[in-house]
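Worked problem 6 (solution included).
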Amino acid sequence: MNEYSTYVTSVIDGDTFETSTQTIRLANINAPESDTPQGQISTDYLKMLIEEKRVTIKSVATDVYGRIVAHVWRNLDNLYINKEMVDSGHAEWI
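Solution. The predicted structure is:
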């Protein structure tokens, strides 16, 4: 498992975001599709949590789309983002 700190440049949807060099998919969760009302709410929540903030990435795999699949913590307060998305009702464990 590779671990490193990086800056989030943009959020794509409720379980995917970008850094300056990579696309990251949150491991073990699934958020609603962004073209649905719940999906937009989930996307907005993830933006509030991590967009333009530093995070720690613990990568576990690369998916078929070339995205890094990872567990993610917000550096500011060590909030585990994957769990927060589920606990807040914006995603489900898979």
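Discussion: The helical segments are 37-50, 81-87.
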